[in-house]
Amino acid sequence: MNWRDRLLPASFRGVGFWIDQAKTPVGRKGQLHEYPQRDLPYFEDLGQQARIHEITAFIVGANCLEQRDKLLKALEAGNGELVHPWLGRLQVKVGECDMTHSRQDGGLVTFALKFYPDQPLPFPTATVSTQKVLLAKADGLLGSAVARFEQAMTLIKAARIGIANLRNSLTGVYEVIKEQLQPLIDQYRQITELVKAVKELPKEVAAEFKGLLGDIKELKAFAKEGYRGVIADVSQQLEAIRKADAPKITTGKDTSAAAQAMADLVQDTMLVKVAQWVASMPVATTPVKLASTPSVAQQSTSPVSRQEVPVSDDMQALRAAVTAAIDPMLAKAGPVHFQAINDVKEALVAHLRAVASSGVRQVSKSFQESLPAVVVAYKQFGDATRAEEVTQRNGITHPGFSPNEVKVSRE
After folding, report:
1. Helix (H, G, I), strand (E, B) or coil at 274
2. Nearest to 68, CA basis, from 32, 97, 108, 102
3. Which Pfam families did the record assign (predicted)?
4. C or N: which end of the chain has fewer Cβ atoms within 10 Å?
């Protein structure tokens, strides 16, 4: 294609004109240093030269004054698209310009235009913090749980509650409290004290549960436990939810209702605790890879410091377990409390999906012989200190002997 065929008709903000000459500085800008008693100067590079477009343009013809006014209006707008005959379409800002009229050159208006490069400001993008949403929904669930318990107890005749039957019904629930809600044991050291409080002081029981849980601040729990530690704790709490699901059937309508109300309150409290622990897991940033792999001898004295990254398969399995534990709770909840539980469920799924998207996949590695877990960790990660991760992920009984095929996270 001939170079003339590649020229574009010049314009700014859609207003056309003719170009006589265009000049644009290129290359690098810098400072030249010259020294006495030295023949060689030094050029200090200060970066790329700004592309300032200096254009000698003109408008000619019988309607040149009308076209001139259109161009002046476009220039006063300050920025826009410049169609440069040789450089193409450019986003520019208008700089200092001169306009010249001459009686001798009738029907001709000359412009000396200067345009500076313009980078349009990007629109701000909002990112939803799934951690904060989850903690907010957990707070809402705890308030709804306490309200449901208090409402259920107002419909029960305390005089009709059998102490012995209620105690038998809450045996499993009390075991969950001892295992997962340890601070309540200071208040209810024996199951008899809990049963008596449920019958005679239900509002105080509700207040104890309401004040039990607080938001996890600054992800301290995650800093201590890491992704695998949090998953292990959450799995225990999900099992506790299942244990507290259905108290033993008791004789008497009021006794059964009181036992069910207490079981529901413990379940809801455990779900709030699950939400708080899951919220402690941050969405991982892209880790920095090691430039080289230190030797085992070096790692024995200076362990490798690395950013922990979640395994997507673990998060997907946890999401399935969370859903399986929550669905029975939704089935027995009233309309208002159903919404509170479902909000937490959706927030849990959203945050676990966000964490999983920032993680790595689990892969299988095959070896010709059985290797110690420390060797597998060093071969896969270049980090011998991750031997415990290998043993836990594969259920290895003795860390000195691993199967020929092991599951590890991809690096």
Report:
1. helix
2. 108
3. DNA_circ_N
4. N
Q: Please name which of 384, 360, 364 lies closest in space to residue 373, comparing C-alpha atoms.
A: 384
Q: Which residues contact residue 357 at a Cβ distance below 8 angstroms, ignoring those fewer than 6 apart?
A: 283, 312
Is 282 exposed, middle or buried (CB count within 10 Å of its CB: 0-12, 13-18, 19+)?
middle
Instruction: Give the amino acid at 376.
Output: V
Predicted local distance difference test score (pLDDT) of residue 271: 92
pLDDT score recorded for residue 289: 61
CB 265 within 8 A of CB 146: yes
Rounded-to-integer distance, Cα 332 and Cα 181, Å: 23
pLDDT < 70: residue spans in the chain = 1, 120-123, 213-224, 246-251, 286-307, 362-369, 371, 373-411
Round to whole Å and give the CA distance between 169 and 252.
12
- Which DSSP string corresponds to 329-374? HHHT--HHHHHHHHHHHHHHHHHHHHHHHTSB-EEEEE-SS---HH
Q: Which residues pair with 408 in a beta bridge?
A: 363
394, with CB counted inside 10 A (0-12, 13-18, 19+), is: middle
pLDDT tens digits, one per residue of 291-315: 556 665 665 556 666 667 788 888 8
pLDDT value for 254: 82
User: Which two three-digit tokens encode residue 203?
Assistant: 């509002």
Pairing of strands 18-23, 15-16: unpaired
Q: What is the per-residue pLDDT for 220?
A: 58
